[in-house]
Description:
Elements: H1 3-15, E1 19-20, H2 23-36, H3 38-41, E2 43-44, E3 52-53, E4 61-66, H4 68-75, E5 88-95, E6 99-109, E7 112-118, E8 128-130, H5 133-139, H6 147-150
Parallel strand pairs: 1-8
Antiparallel strand pairs: 2-4, 3-4, 4-5, 5-6, 6-7, 7-8
Amino acid sequence: MKIHALIGALLLVATGCGDNQEPEAAVAFWNQLQTDDYRSNFARAPGWPGREPSKAIHADFVEIYINDVVVDALDAGEPITAWPDGSLIVKDGYDGDEELNVVAAMEKRDGAWFWAEWFDLESGEAKYSGSPRLCTDCHSDGDDFVTSFSFPAAQ
């Protein structure tokens, strides 16, 4: 069993049914992602040109999308120590290499990240939202929560 999967399973047990701290904001975020049609209109994250195997707890395979704010920050050519407000990153998680079963997203708002993870892809009701420990425990490595995890080119 992968160490990340084991850690994820332990965290899921510890958090019970989820940690949906801001359910209305999560539904609004989901609806905005659908309106934005992120799969068609966002760029692919550096190092993630398509569906790739994942060692993280989100899924066996993932696709990662970034909005123009993230693209512009990466294109600036400067080391990124903090992402600008409006940065939005979406990770689609696939069971095996076929079925989409989770969408995780984070958006930088007023200097802080808003996180959400959806397993119910019809209603937009999140299992995790706000600033849940399940997200922040893995992404709190001192680089504004995402640089070394997903975008080594940003360092």
